[in-house]
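Researcher: I'm preparing a figure for a lab meeting and need a structural model of a single chain. I don't have an experimental structure, so a prediction will have to do for now. The sequence is pasted below. Please return the structure as tokens so I can convert it later.
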Amino acid sequence: MAKRDNIFLVGLMGAGKTTVGRQLAKQLNLVFYDADHVLEERTGVRIPVIFDIEGETGFRAREEAVIHELCALTGIVLATGGGAVLSAANRAALKNNGVVIYLRGSPEQLYERTRHDRNRPLLHTADPLEKLRELYAQRDPLYRDVADVIVDTGRQSAVHLSRTLREKLDALYPTQAGSSGV
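Model: Understood. Here is the structure written out token by token.
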């Protein structure tokens, strides 16, 4: 398996991993997975319910199992949950099985994108912007460590961002003549 056979998107909640991942998968003719959606399908409940019943520790254990399973596939684009990088096992699985792209957004940008989303248990706090700043400070070094490519999301559209990512991938991992262009 070539490193480029799988593309894994990491970043904080609201960075655009799911939206951009869908676009990128479509452009590259790969299968798209969202780790959180897979987890919800398997458990039959939304992420906040898992947090309520099992706490963050229980959720992270389930998330790790899903990430491990999805990283074993080939020909996918995977949008990970924002906290997936907290697990050393997840970081190793991502790094060893595909190209890892860190979609980086400032806490302020991410707050604007997530402030009305009720499916973000870690933001159910009196000051969600401050929580995003804390998460950024904690996770940014982990995202950087695992990433092959770092892209600032800014105010780019998902289509423009996915095009930018494809150009960066082409520069890093040139395809051979006669290949599918993936």
